Amino acid sequence: MATPAAHPVPLCVDLDGTLTRTDLLFEAFFVLVKQSPLSIFLCFAWALRGRAYLKEQIAQRVNIDVGVLPYNTELLSWLRDERASGRDLYLCTATNQRLASQIAAHIGLFTGVLASTVGNNLLGKNKARALVEQFGDHGFDYCGDARADLPVWRQARQAIVVGDKHIAAAARKTNAAIIFFEQKRRLIPLVLKEMRVHQWVKNVLIFVPLLTAHRFTDRSALAAACIAFLSFSLAASSVYLLNDMLDLDADRRHARKRSRPFASGKLSLKFGIVLTVGLLAAGGGLAALLPREFGVVMAAYFVTTVAYSFALKRMTLVDVFTLACLYTVRVIAGGAATDIQLSYWLILFCVPIFLSLAMVKRYVELDTILREGKTEAAGRGYITQDISILRSFGTASAYLAVLVLALYLNTPEMKALYLHPKALWATFALTLFWVSRIWMCAFRGTMHDDPIVFAFKDRASLAVIALSGLSMMLAI
Predict the structure, then answer these.
(1) Which domain holds residue 452?
(2) Distances from the Cα of 459 to the Cαs of 60, 424, 455, 462, in angstroms?
(3) Full-model pTM
(4) Cα 328 from chain centre
(5) Residues 146, 197: one domain?
(6) What gap in Å lies between CA 285 and CA 186, rounded to an integer?
């Protein structure tokens, strides 16, 4: 790395993607949309009057906690050394002046701030012109991260590049003297992590109607269920992405969720919007191959999950009932995709068992923040005092589901459907054991925050699933 001159020229630093690993326009946009979903239409109207006007209007309506933003720690350390050597630092960004000033005040290293105003979007040639007017041609060094910075590097004495090798190569064509802070990002692993492919295991519930209707050997029904599984999984991932982009502030305060690609800035929010739309379109395309009823169920699932992301998850108890419905909808979707009529007994069993699992999820979250010494869950409607009542509600729901199963095992319909119905009493005992164990693990703090994902990783749970399947086969 080059050694600074004895009397260095001012160092001008970009914000979006350089000092921070995110874009403040998109950060502010998602904060605004979360506050008021209908404001998305206002954003389109503001954008018609120019990008600078859009930034101004959004900035006036949102508050961002700049203290939890994902800053480039390596660059910050270098900037502190430059400042300690007596060099003047200036924050020069296309972000709106209001937000840029807040960040400059938080960092505490900058002599001044040059940022976008309502009549001037300080990007590319506009930024180059402003810096030349302020410091003269080649009278400043500039630190940036994108091709939009090429006009600025052309006018700078020295180019400081934050980004990948392609940006560094482009910068060298305009300015031979560069300092390079390389940011290596493996896109596909980050995308798969953000899509939460491991959560697709929950969509295995789509195959439940095939098992209960004894049609798991029906090839056409099995193929339809597989298409439904993939369609639901892609649509679910699109909602996961949207939820994470709306929940950036809360995720950055969470011990584990702060490492998510959007929260950490490893994936850009702009890319996230494109990926969200693409996944939803792919899921919808697959749904078009199945009966119309499946499309209706999936549309209801998507609308409900979006409502959950915007508002329902912050409503005490409403959130867990919504989660229980979303789990149950997967079973209903499986029936719609394979044209299998679901029994009322199956729905009566699904609702309380999934309500219990949803309460496990909230219980684990509250238990975690209680261990951290906090009093409430960020972005949720619960306080730590709710943990006892959640445990009571959750265990009661679990045993209610087991009771429904026991009642079903004594019905004439069940006896007519199975050749050896008594073999299913093993499933009753296994289910009773499993729900008890799930809550025991939650109480001991040894569970993943999603109990269904936990079940497919836990050896005892996998044994219960295998033995339950065996008892069903024996009964058939």
Answers:
(1) 188-475
(2) 53, 22, 8, 5
(3) 0.84
(4) 22
(5) no
(6) 28
Pairing of strands 141-144, 178-182: unpaired
The CATH number of the domain holding residue 156 is 3.40.50.1000
Tell me, yes or no, whether 178 and 198 share the same domain. no
Q: Which of 146, 163, 184 is the last residue before a domain boundary?
A: 184
Strand partners, 141: 11, 158
pLDDT one-digit tens code per residue, 119-177: 899 999 999 999 999 999 999 999 999 899 999 999 999 999 988 888 888 888 888 77
CB under 8 A, 24+ apart: contacts of 314-320: 314/379, 314/380, 314/381, 315/381, 316/381, 316/382, 316/386, 319/358, 319/362, 319/380, 319/381, 320/355, 320/358, 320/359, 320/361, 320/362
For the chain, what is the radius of gyration of the CA atoms? 27
45-73 pLDDT tens trace? 999 999 999 999 999 999 999 999 999 99
Structural domain count, the chain: 2
Where on the phi/psi map is residue 445: left (φ > 0), alpha (ψ -120 to 50), or beta?
left
Query: How crowded is residue 198: how many other Cβ atoms within 10 Å of its Cβ?
Result: 14
